[in-house]
Structures are given as C-alpha cells and as structure tokens.
Input
Amino acid sequence: MAKQVHCLVRGRVQGVFFRASTQREARRLGVTGWVKNLSDGSVEIVAEGEDDRVKEFLQWAQRGPSAARVDRVETRWRSYTGEFTDFRIEP
Output
C-alpha cells in the first residue's frame, strides 16, 4: 500500500548537505517527492511511495546526514497521490 508523508525537520539541517542527502536516500529507496529549505532554518519534505519504503525513509530523516543534528521531525501522513515521478530539490 502506498502512502505520502509531509515532514518538517528541525535542528541543524541547513548548510550540512541535508537536501542532497535526502534526495540521494529517497532515490535509493524508490521514494518520490521533494525537499526544500524554509526561511526559519528547517527543512520541509513531501515523500511518497510504498509504505515500508516511506517508513524507512522517515527513519533516515530522523537522523539525517552525519553533519546534521536533527532535533525534531513533525510528521503528517497523507493519502498517496501519485503526482511525483522523481525526488527533487526545490529552490
């Protein structure tokens, strides 16, 4: 069963290759969606795919790349839309 998750990742998550690492991990897992920096210093992610893959991706996001410090991940589950064909970094 496919799902979508919307996340706000808070901590030291900008300037540490978080977006590029997120994209690489999503593509490795076959998850689609997007990631972008927000003006408040957090990172926003929308990801969708098979339930187990999205859950594994979410576990990774709670740690992030080695240079990051993730303090909190706010998560909202949504219905799968199928609107994405890849995982991209938004400006």
